[in-house]
């Protein structure tokens, strides 16, 4: 299991850190108990997998989502170190209320994961202005607000990390994804701009992006359903996604989640403004 491999590698990093004179590095010893995390889109998919992994590593986690019932149930399943917060990522006031709620229960925020997103396939002739704007509002404006409010909260505390969920489609565009590709390309550049600002201002805030390939989540299940509606078989649609990746399979939600947790941990303390592809070699 990937979780086991991550856990086994962390103590080795801790021993090396001691040799290099690093006294404390939260995360390299398998514990993230000092982390207080807010995850947008935390009720499902990569967001929920990330929340689960953070909790397993000892962090306190808030699952932010517009899916209230699903989010509340997901937080309850994760136990006392998890909570649900109602979060519409397109609304600045909602972000501020979410941060306030998290800090009231768990203390100062240390980590923001911008995972909320939508993807509705439509080429440039099919896409509407309304649909394009909705995708950008959630996928890009939502990340902008998460970064803006996140920087404000983190610099008021002890610093921390922001991890944004990009996509390989923000690097290699897809003909049926003009809105999604545009939004995720924007996330990459936004991530770098915010990382540079924090570094230049001397804030102890790192900002990075994870770029997943096709990960078998509810979103990909939507693509599979669309393919079946068009006459394709489930197996052929999944096979098409798999063949696009040199590793010839879809990713599992825990795989980008592990990358997010790594970038949020102190094991990544000298990494900022970076893209970490979790894509089975697609961008190689």
Q: What percent of the residues sit in helical stretches (DSSP H or I)?
A: 40-55%
What's the total helix number? 9
Q: Provide the CATH architecture of the largest domain.
A: 3-Layer(aba) Sandwich
Distance between the termini: 24 Å
Number of beta-strand segments? 7
- According to CATH, the fold-level topology of the largest domain is Rossmann fold
Number of domains: 2
The general outline is globular
Could you please describe the fold and organization of this structure?
With 284 residues, the protein is α/β, with parallel strands linked by helices. It has two domains: 30-213 and 252-278, NAD(P)-binding Rossmann-like Domain (Rossmann fold, 3-Layer(aba) Sandwich); 216-250, no CATH class. 50% of the residues lie in helices and 13% in strands. The protein is built from nine helices and seven strands, in the order αβαβαβαβαβαβαααβ. It has helices at residues 2-19, 45-56, 68-78, 92-106, 129-156, 178-201, 218-229, 234-243, 254-264, and strands at 36-40, 60-65, 82-86, 111-114, 160-165, 205-212, 275-278. It has a seven-stranded parallel sheet, sandwiched between helices. α4 runs parallel beside α5 (129-156). The chain is globular. The two termini are 24 Å apart.
